[in-house]
């Protein structure tokens, strides 16, 4: 619990109107997009980097945790204030400070909603590619903190590939600039990419310089239904090694398709075991040609039908079906554990087969979908918490899935981060020496462990270690 | 000086045949591609990661510096053993362990020559893009340590964008794995990218997992000569914001052109003030169309002639002329200080104008060329050390150039690193708080400061601080 004294000091920094202290108000900032929640002692909405510096210095002085938060759309508990203390909501820092066509950069504050940024950039004929499914409500600061991805990462890469520079309040209260406004830069250690994906544990981001690219002249979308998983996997592999450079290459398994069937703009065969959703960017003629060749690959691999979206609304309907999968799974079971594992591209078929086998054997629905083009598959273990058999089977099922992923030389998370939900599994991927090094690194940034404690590494005494 | 005892222990680890101790032999590993040199006390050629662990543990025990070294082609003194001790030459770790078409990855040891790797990858129909001018003799380990770039970074990015995972001997002697074999990964802090560009100060890389892409189906090269710098800059800007996605967009100023004029496969007009060298990758038809439109942009901006390479040998001749610029400058003056500054793309014309003015005023030849497509300009201040006026003018000229770059919101280095040569200028870019944080980070990795000491941050007492 933070003391009344701390509350008064916080009020002096941000003003009464930017401080929440009642239980009802605080509860609104206790959770994220997981099913986890923890009540903070206070919620503040700072209006500037200078205010954040003061708050962080106060935290060091009094020893309370500070948990930065954007829109709370994270999927691993990263913004849940698991040790209480102060939640630092960054939504007031929501200015797009600059979009420079000349330098191909945008300078933004962390609280800008990603969708708003993307639209503003596109209005200038430019493009900011990362596109997580939560784009319409997540913040760019959260994207940086978790290193968000999305469907077009196959061609364009993830958030990491677009952040050139950052302004950050360190856990010790100093404001520093890292990185550059330039396309390249190797001056000193790469703090910029170290902050990327550090889940709010190494500092509070207050300004972001993003690389922009030209808006693609054209995009084609196609969908291919397969009666056979192996055939779909073979088409993925052919497309990826063809030099045809897909922009996005998404996959949905049979169980997932059942949840979004009626949202698709074409009748899906009852026998469909997998759907591929493919986007291709480029010059109009070239896109036409490459999409045609990809459609051929799918056809030769056995896809039927192969549909090319003939209009923008039809393409958007296809992508909308993809984006609503996560909430649509509620139709099957009220709760789910979502893992966003990544395997080497060649191992995707083996992963999908293993998941089907595990689902059958464990008697739990497992729905898989996601970014086949980069091996990042969203694996959802669905369960009803009121059914004891299901509830009790979840933990072992997830553990088994992660073990399969590691055996296939994959990684535990591609986009969502470790946060709280995957912290118990960190040792499945990192050796004790690597974890010890990461702890020393955290210590070098945050000697008093005030910045989002209890994440990535379970904090001693949290019950997770 | 390392003691006889240490020499005996080193011999026990690597064998007599992999240890050099005579002054003549040691001198061969004292320098890099700068004009700096410092005699090491011993040179070892370890044959495995296990041997490197032993050597590093010995260094901690006895307190001697260890400086990792690839081919010694670095341009900032990064592999010069400035505090003596042991040079660790990694050329025996030179195996390409795997090239996987299925997973689109290569697994290599650090001593592999980049050109050999690129050829092996291309023989499989795949492509590893980074292409520094030293590709035929630099090692991939050095590329990772410095975050090497090259001409095609405009489209494909730099070494950082291709390193998925690393095996590293930490400065404390433990072997760890960082990163993944997968295209995405956000598990824990991003140690992989932290090692990228850390110039051998945070550990010894012993294995590298690289992302590969499909080999582009076609590449077109074109050259455009401009009588006017502003016109060339305008063409660069138009091409970059056109959505035509150039693969490479190289620039040479008038002074540089004079050095390579006879190497070009076409007669260059006497009035040429700038040459743009452009590459475009993609499907054959598309490349033809995009190269045509880029040629039009250049023509409209005033280029004459605009030459499209009509054969592979002709294209190679153009790129060869680009690659030999650095040694060709010796024709003008025996010595040079090479800076590889980067400015925001829109600031390139202002940088070039400023350089011409500085050259005139200071009476020193300044030759500029490089990667206009990402603002990374190689600025060479040429001088004759026997001419006192020139020799004495160099330091202030370089300092002035770097100040101009910072004023234009640029960075001191895009590819070459800080090493020794730019360490005195670190404070021009990083704040005291940022430098202090970087020192704490170094300390967290290397508590005894044995790993390539004296780089990035000038070591206390080195005369550079």
Structural class based on helices, strands and sheet pairing of chain A: alpha+beta
Helix content of chain A: 25-40%
Query: Overall pLDDT of chain A, averaged?
Result: 94
Number of helices of chain A: 15
Uncertain runs of chain A are: 461-465
Multimer state: homodimer
Widest beta sheet: strand line-up of chain A: 15-12-14-13-17-18-16
Report on the structure:
2 copies of one chain form a homodimer. By secondary structure, chain A is of the alpha+beta class. The first copy, chain A, has helices at 4-14, 23-27, 49-62, 114-122, 140-146, 153-156, 191-195, 229-240, 254-260, 284-300, 312-323, 325-328, 348-362, 388-407, 432-445; strands at residues 19-20, 42-44, 66-69, 86-89, 96-100, 105-108, 126-127, 163-169, 175-179, 204-211, 213-214, 218-226, 248-253, 274-282, 306-308, 335-342, 366-371, 376-383. In chain A, the strands form 4 sheets. The first copy, chain A, has a 7-stranded antiparallel sheet, with helices on both faces. In chain A, helix 8 (229-240) runs antiparallel to helix 10 and helix 13 packs antiparallel against helix 14. Chain A is globular and about 70 Å long.
């Amino acid at each position: 619990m933070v003391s009344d004294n701390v509350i008064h000091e916080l009020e002096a920094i941000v003003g009464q109107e930017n401080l929440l202290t009642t239980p009802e108000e605080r509860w609104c900032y206790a959770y994220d997009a997981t099913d986890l929640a923890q009540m903070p002692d206070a919620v503040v909405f700072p209006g500037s980097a200078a205010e954040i510096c003061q708050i962080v210095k106060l935290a060091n002085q009094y020893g309370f945790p500070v948990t930065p938060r954007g829109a709370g759309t994270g999927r691993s508990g990263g913004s849940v204030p698991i040790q209480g203390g102060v939640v630092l909501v960054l939504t007031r820092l929501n200015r797009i400070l600059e979009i420079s066509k000349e330098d191909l950069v945008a300078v933004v504050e962390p609280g800008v909603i990603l969708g708003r940024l993307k639209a503003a950039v596109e209005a200038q004929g430019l493009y900011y590619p990362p596109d997580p499914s939560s784009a319409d409500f997540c913040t760019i600061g959260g994207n940086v903190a978790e290193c968000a991805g999305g469907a077009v990462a196959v061609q364009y890469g993830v958030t990491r590939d677009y952040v050139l520079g950052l302004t950050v309040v360190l856990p010790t209260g100093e404001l520093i600039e890292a990185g550059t406004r330039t396309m390249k830069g190797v001056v000193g250690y790469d703090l910029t990419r170290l902050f990327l994906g550090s889940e709010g544990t190494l500092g509070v981001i207050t300004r972001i310089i993003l690389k922009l690219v030209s808006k693609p002249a054209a995009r084609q979308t196609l969908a291919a239904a397969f009666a056979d998983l192996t055939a779909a996997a073979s088409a993925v592999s052919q497309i990826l090694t063809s030099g045809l450079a897909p922009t996005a290459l998404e996959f949905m398994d049979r169980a997932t398709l059942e949840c979004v069937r009626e949202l698709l703009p074409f009748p899906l065969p009852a026998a469909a075991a997998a759907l591929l959703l493919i986007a291709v960017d480029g010059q109009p003629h070239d896109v036409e040609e490459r999409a045609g060749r990809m459609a051929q690959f799918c056809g030769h691999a056995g896809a039927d039908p192969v549909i090319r979206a003939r209009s923008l609304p039809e393409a958007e309907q296809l992508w909308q079906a993809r984006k609503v999968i996560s909430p649509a799974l509620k139709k099957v079971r009220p709760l789910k554990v979502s893992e966003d594992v990544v395997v080497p591209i060649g191992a995707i078929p083996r992963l999908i087969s293993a998941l089907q086998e595990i689902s059958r054997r464990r008697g739990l629905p497992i729905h898989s979908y996601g970014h086949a083009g980069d091996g990042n598959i969203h694996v959802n273990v669905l369960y009803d918490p009121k059914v004891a058999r299901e509830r009790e089977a979840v933990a072992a099922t997830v553990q088994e899935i992660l073990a399969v992923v590691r055996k296939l030389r994959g990684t535990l998370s591609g986009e969502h981060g470790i946060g709280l939900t995957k912290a118990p599994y960190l040792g499945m991927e990192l050796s004790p020496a690597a974890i010890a090094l990461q702890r020393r690194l955290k210590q070098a940034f945050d000697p008093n462990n005030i910045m989002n404690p209890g994440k990535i590494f379970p904090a001693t005494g949290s019950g997770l270690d």
